[in-house]
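Here is an idea for our session: we take a single protein and study its fold together. Once you have written the record down, we can walk along the chain together.
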Amino acid sequence: MSGGRMNDASTLDVLGPSPAGDEARAFARLQARLPALFRRVFPDPLAPRTVVVVPSLTMDAELLAKIEGVQHYEERLLCMLMLLRLPHTHVIYLTSLPVDPTIVDYYLHLLPGIPSNHARRRLTLLAAHDGSPTPLTRKILDRPRLLRRIRSAIPDPETAHLSCFTVTEEERALALALDVPLYGCDPALADAGSKSGSREILKQAGVPVPDGFERLRDARDVVAALAALKRRNPALRRAVIKLEEGTSGEGNAIFAFDGCPAGGGLERWLETELPRRLRFEAEEETWERYRERFADMGGIVETFVEGEPKRSPSVQCRIDPLGGIDLISTHDQELGGRSGQVFKGCTFPADPAYRLDVQAAGARAAELLRQRGILGRFAIDFVSVREGDGWRHYGIEINLRKGGTTHTFMMLQFLTDGTYDPSTGLYRTPTGQERFYYASDNLKSPRYRGLTPEDLIDIAVDHDLHFHGATQQGVVFHLIGALSEHGKLGVLCVAGSVGEARDLYRHAVDVLDRETEA
């Protein structure tokens, strides 16, 4: 494994406490196959295996609907087609709608040392042919014939596993339907990745978090929490309210305290002003709808971290089926939105001034998650502000799933076959060269609408916007399917420094802008 192994413990019961019922017991038996698979198959690049990739965004439908082109986010895990560089590996990739063949060809062309026709024989692309907002996993479960096609495409179920973007009861049901173990967190443990659960674990790990309150249930709790925060800190300017299961900042809202009474009557003032003053990250959100959603799922209230400069680093980790913890990477996230809480892109690695500090904080939280039985990839997000000559870091949330930095770092690994060094926080190719990147899921312009995948490839060829295997630097596009309808595209720019990676990105944007001027 390429990350930093912290714990090489004996076989761990990766499930932890599961809900009662036949399905939970069956899932436990299924998952018990993972440790042997991890020992026998994962380390051997020549071992036959099958990876079933289900990039379903099984999350809150109303929040996902606010992300432009969200249907095409199923394409972000096309980076896993790079597993076909292993000559006896089969990949089965599921989507709601068929992936354009040009996009598939684009990824297969990136495979180092493997003829594309050899890789294509080991790739099975299956689609539900359903563009509705229903999560992909539900679409698959509702189609028995599609399930049969998936099962028939697996050469040997004993060497297969399921890889999903997120894991809920739906993905657990899919694993059981396919009789394939799932390399991901048991949904019975999902509370550790909620906003409240994240704060509780981070505090237990000794990671500072913004002053606030968890496990709130309704608008009255929100008012009480806002009042308590203001009384504890009379200078407090703003607080953030978060839905328990919000994603990419879309479930967040900001409340400003300016003009609040200094004496009594604070709660009464808050009850009146909350509907008027709350500023939502999600466009077109209303207080009435937000209040109902908060009552449905609950949430937290915490102080808005003020300060300049302010950064948003994250730490990516993985807990394997044997209980080992890998420190995978650090990133500085680029955030946007009305108050800077919506993920837009990232730089790898995080700033050298603090990358090892946030990594150490993430490692402490990862150990607690390991003890709880968490399995698979997860990320821990921070907000960091400059204090004197140093930085102060606040843990914000734990995402028990793949995320916005997962596919970009996986692509870097697949393309370069390098390793991440947790002692320095740097990534090096097999020849020892350091590699950095800048990536975005949100390169967007109305002028890009109407560009087909073929058009993008033509532009890339004309202007040499490629990843070059000889130098192990260059540009890789993703989210290509969102380009024509939404004018939206993802870009990964790999280079020998952060500055060079950003220059590559600016060059790619400049090329696309010039090509669409007319």
The mean pLDDT is 92. Residues 211-303 form one domain. The two ends are 48 Å apart (CA to CA).
